[in-house]
Amino acid sequence: MSPEILPPDFEVVDQIADDHQVGLSDEEFASLISPEFRDKLQSAALSRVHDYHDAQDVVQTAYERLLKHRGGFEGRSAPTTWMHRILINAAWTHHYRNKGKETVHVDELAEKTLGVESSPEELFEATELEREINQSLGNVHPSAAAVLRLVARGYTQAEIAKSFGITKNAVKIRIHRARKILAEELYN
Fold it and tell me: Most C-beta atoms within 10 A of its C-beta, which of 73, 89, 146, 188?
């Protein structure tokens, strides 16, 4: 005896098709480009690349990929989870493209520490100091190093706490731990 083949239940087929729609709805897309979510992405990027300017580049790349692949969303996860994965992939791409390249912002360092009218010797010494600090920060936990870099750029503890989504006390702890390790590295 062969099993009886029933005609398809079109309501069930339509429901399955609706549940597996490809692409983001306008509401989902709007939630991903909201300022609040963008700030979360910025914090996540900063925790991975450890430089404010590089984090902005990573977020920009992630949004470019979102626009390019908006229709590729399959609904197997939340849109925010999908976007976070896009961000992580953008951070990895950034890391591998810039692997071995040392980031030294000589102009910013000269303006902040020495003033615009600096001699070449002063610029060289400041650059060497920043290079040593950057190397030593490699031994500090990435989140603590990112916080310390932001402090060095003049951000307040409250601003850092907001960008990372942590408390001000957590920022203070990370600064303390990073400074302690950095001091040990530089003075040994």
Answer: 146
Binning pLDDT at 50, 70 and 90, where does residue 103 land? low
- Number of C-beta neighbours around residue 44 at 10 A: 21
- Give the CATH number of the domain where residue 183 resides: 1.10.10.10
- Compute the distance between CA of residue 178 and CA of residue 183 in angstroms, rounded to an integer: 8
**Positive/negative CA dihedral, 73, 75, 76, 79:** positive
Residue 22 phi/psi, 5-degree rounding, is -95, 140
How far apart (Å, rounded) are the C-alpha atoms in residues 99 and 82? 26
CB atoms < 10 A from the CB of 14, how many?
Answer: 10
Question: What pLDDT band is residue 186 in, cutting at 50, 70 and 90?
Answer: low
165 phi, psi to nearest 5 deg:
75, 35
The runs of H, that is alpha helices, within 102-156 are: 106-109, 120-137, 142-152
Q: Which range of residues forms the domain containing residue 51?
A: 21-97
Closest among 145, 149, 105, 147 to 126, alpha carbons compared: 105
Quote the number of domains for the chain. Answer: 2
